Amino acid sequence: MKVLCIVGMPGAGKSLVSEAARILGIPIISMGDVVREEAIKRGLSPTRRNLALIAEELRRLEGPDAIAKRCVKKVIQLKQDVILVEGVRSPFEVALFRRLGEVIVIAVHTSPGVRYRRLVRRGRSDDPRSWDDFVRRDLQELGFGIACVILDADVVLVNENKSAKEFREEAIDVLRRLLENAD
Fold first, then answer.
1. Which pTM was predicted?
2. Which terminus of the chain is more solvent-facing, meaning fewer CB atoms within 10 Å of its CB: N or C?
3. CATH number of the domain that residue 121 is part of
4. Residue 8 and residue 109 in contact, taking contact as beta carbons nearer than 8 Å
């Protein structure tokens, strides 16, 4: 099995890489969706604050790879040769996915100013409402160890000065090359 782990700061463009994978028929598991599912299961609205509290609690009670463990169950149920996991945040999570097979870490990089503007436009319930909110969220992500995962990435995609369509096309090309090299 090949697990493509997508990592990037909030608003970098991870979901566009996931869309590219979907176009290529690669199944996707979103780590953020796993936390949102947990919020709904608990009867909580998926606000940034609630999601952060749930993620922190899960990691505190079950270990730094708690969310990845829930994803592994989904990966196994899918029974596919290639799977994309969106939103990996820590080296512990990457290590857990390595137990399933070959892991390729793909980092998506975008400057903070561009990411902030995207998140404000996106307007999801867990997106920042101010620059201070944005900085706090970035610091929280860095606390999970995301910088280490980004630094150790096998592939880095830079999502600057491109339309969503252009970046998605670039991601499709990169994913195709990775799949071709698997054969």
1. 0.91
2. C
3. 3.40.50.300
4. yes
